[in-house]
From TrEMBL:
InterPro entries linked: EPSTI1
Coiled coil: 62-105
Keyword NADP: no
Keyword Endoplasmic reticulum: no
Protein name: ESIP1 protein
Length: 140
């Protein structure tokens, strides 16, 4: 196993040697364009100041966008709650109408039942005789 490890290390060293970066050869040339050093430094200073304002502007835009997103989320939640409340109100109104209909129907049946009982208790020929009995029939 030692000879295998030594062979692998030798192979690694040979591979490193083959793939070693070679020296770079560039033709010398003048850099920096047509500006003088003072102009370049002044331009750098202006760009630095502008970048500060740009960063501040970016931050403000981010805060504004975040607030707008939060506001939109709040409005969305309010709309959902309003819709739920409206549905609940409609449901309550329908239940109230149903309750009223059931009450009126029940009242109608009770009234008919009472009238039927009263009709059975009275003589059919002359119903006014009960009212004209006279003073001796009263218990007072």
């Amino acid at each position: 196993t030692c000879s295998v490890a030594k062979k692998e290390l030798d192979d690694l060293e040979q591979w490193k040697e083959e793939h070693r970066p070679r020296p770079i050869k560039l033709v010398p040339q003048r850099l920096g364009g047509k500006e003088s050093e003072a102009q370049a430094r002044q331009k750098q200073q202006m760009m630095l100041m502008q970048s500060k304002y740009q960063q501040k502007h970016k931050r403000e835009e981010y805060v504004k966008a975040k607030k707008a997103a939060e506001e939109a989320e709040i409005l969305k939640k309010k709309a959902i709650q309003r819709e739920k409340a409206e549905r609940l109100e409609v449901k309550k109104r329908q239940q109230e109408i149903q309750r009223r209909e059931m009450f009126l129907e029940d009242q109608y049946y009770k009234t008919n039942e009472l009238l039927n009982r009263l009709d059975l208790g009275l003589p059919k020929s002359d119903s006014c005789q009960i009212a004209d009995r006279g003073p001796e029939s009263t218990a007072w």
